[in-house]
Amino acid sequence: MGETLIFEHFPAKLQPSHFSSISCSLLVAKAAYFAGSMSQKPVRIGFVGVGGMGQMAHLRNYASASMAEQCEVVAIAECRTKLGNEIAKRYGVPRVYNNHEELFANEKLDGVVASQGFNRHVSLVPELYKAGIPVFTEKPLSVTVAAGEKILSALKTSGTWHMVGYHKRSDPATMFAKAEIDRLKQSGELGKLNYIRITMPPGDWIAGGFNDLIKSDEPVPADPNAEPVDWKDPLFIYVNYYIHQVNLLRHLFGEKYKVVFSDKSGKLLVAESESGVTGIIEQAPFSTKQGWQESALVAFEKGYVKLDLPAPVVHNQPGSVTVYTEKGYFSPQLPPIHAMRQQAINFCRALRGEIPPMCDAVEALEDLKIARDYLHFWKGAESCQ
Prior knowledge:
CATH superfamily of one domain: Dihydrodipicolinate Reductase, domain 2
Radius of gyration: 21 Å
Order of helices and strands: HEHEHEHEHEHEHEHHEEEEEEEHH
CATH class of one domain: Alpha Beta
Helix content: 25-40%
CATH architecture of one domain: 2-Layer Sandwich
Number of helices: 11
CATH topology of one domain: Dihydrodipicolinate Reductase, domain 2
């Protein structure tokens, strides 16, 4: 019964609604017992690309000894031969191939993790679908809506599915908060959902998470079919920096939403959910050189759930949750599991059919549409200056 299993599953009798009568530590222990007692077979994973995020956000989690019951990383496909061999040696991966075609021709896989620049998704991901096995990629789905639609068109005929790496959904704090928000919406004990505010100030997003990165001076071959990388393009900048918050807002709403306003400074996105609830994303209202201060406030009529999230690639640190009601404040003691590690567990569980993907490619396309619509509002606000 390993700690990596603690937040795989909340048994129905141990939902967060029972915190008033069951101590958090007892809940976590029982949840770990029930999750750990499920029969499971390690899934076979192949990696396509092991650059910075491929190594530090993904491979080191899948290949860790504590994940042995969840999965086996059987091979790497990496076009930089020296880098691929060095990484395989460090993480104990038995075989290395030069490209994904060689990987699929020689390995029987249950799933593939392809951590690539998102501008390359439009050319690479449809090729991965042809293997007929589930695919995991980093966020976002692509740069543009048009490219995302092209990817989904290929997905529809592939017979497989695609999980997009919005790791914030897999943070133990978010998993707890989401369950509690849904319960409160259903019970009505705090009244109606009133408002959601997400604050995203830039900070130290790495937080030491790249300290063990294996680097290479080998060039990455150009992809003529990739979308352009343009750090002066507002769309490219936005989908790189703020698409996580765009996705998280929908996750917390539990329904689709639309953009209704942007201020001319580009600091504020105002949204309205399908049921008429207002939500905002505060985009870089301030910045920090050290630390990470991302948060989400989910407000009901008579209380709230507040979520504080850590730096994206920090190790062994979950976020935190505060629930406020008229009875006072409550904060659960969460296990030392970081979001990227739990995300790996969640992908493995999805491969075994135990849970659906935390965010599939179909929903990820909605994020690109929100980004497009937000920039339309922002440019309109700018023109009014």
